[in-house]
Design goal:
The protein contains 11 helices and 19 strands. It has helices at 2-18, 26-34, 62-69, 93-103, 120-129, 141-153, 189-193, 244-248, 265-268, 270-279, 325-338, and strands at residues 44-48, 53-57, 77-82, 85-90, 111-114, 134-138, 159-162, 175-180, 195-204, 210-215, 222-228, 255-262, 284-289, 292-298, 304-310, 314-320, 347-351, 356-360, 368-370. It is globular. The model has no long low-confidence stretch (mean pLDDT 92).
Length: 374
Amino acid sequence: MEELVELQHRLASTMAARGDWPADSPWVRQAVEDLPRHRFAPDRVWSWDGSGYVPADRTTDPGRWAELVYPGPDEPTITHITDGLATSSLSCQSIVVDMLDSLMVEPGHRVLELGTGAGWNAALLAARAGDGSVTSVEVDAQLAAMARGRLDSVDAGVTVEVGDGAHGQPEGAPYDRLMATYAVDEVPWSWVEQTRPGGRIVTPWGRLGHVALTVAADGRSASGWIQGLATFMPSRGTDQGRSRHEVRGDGPPVAEGPFPRSLLPLRADSGLLFALRAMLPDVRITTEAGEGVTAWLHDGRSSWATLVAASDERAVAYQGGPRRLADEVDRAWQRWQSAGAPGLYDFGMTRTPYEQYIWSGDKDTGPRWETALR
């Protein structure tokens, strides 16, 4: 137990040194201290060894278990594996804190959380909103039962329901606040309908970014700003597509030629990365830096590109499959530059009954960035 407390304090101190604790929401740090993540971790957690997930059990390897429960601020703790894929986790503590701050929960607010997982986030919400104010929905009945037990053990006063988060929980609507703990590409309209006018919705969006939306006075739209670059698991059952290695295969590239840009912004410019995510929602981009920079692109189906550059020089693009992903990225990059190269926090999102779109600068007059999937 002493080791867990020491690791808890070390993580809190690291976050303090980085400025991660929100000054406008001091209750968040207090709640995390009172309800530490190890109280919600199952006795078996998992880590990736390069080829698959391997378990660490509290009873047989308590030191490794504790290290995985208290990783760095930006690392999650994997708590559930389904068919070889991670399907539930204790999220990165820095992101949990940031999203709670973004939600702007006040005492007495009625809160709907979608994606109970281990129950930790629901407990933190209840610490602020109050006993009986939080309802949490979990699609996995087994996870829901275990989370319910943990929440009851700390007298959180949270109601846990089993159901599909995409439908919300209409029986208790309208809610003052709604939070999803899993990523969606399209914010379900049911979430807007179940949140009162002036209420707030915080959710991860796709593979990159989380957004805070405020429901309009007439209830017919919800708009708000991007809050950060959270990366969350998708909803259960989402087809995550083929891996980069599966798409790339062993064959030679179909096309080879220059890529007319430095690759360094793909590692450092969050505004560019978010813009590419908005315009090319199915294109996944990973990078690695050494003596130069390498970027890998793939669409999860059949097309790929590898961009290779030495230091700050322009890159060479190797491409395969029916699409030319390097060319698509170049065109989207140009469009972002033509719009003034907005930064991450210059972007926002609007959801109406009929559409969802990203905008930059001003939601009514600024450039719009389509989010429709292929």
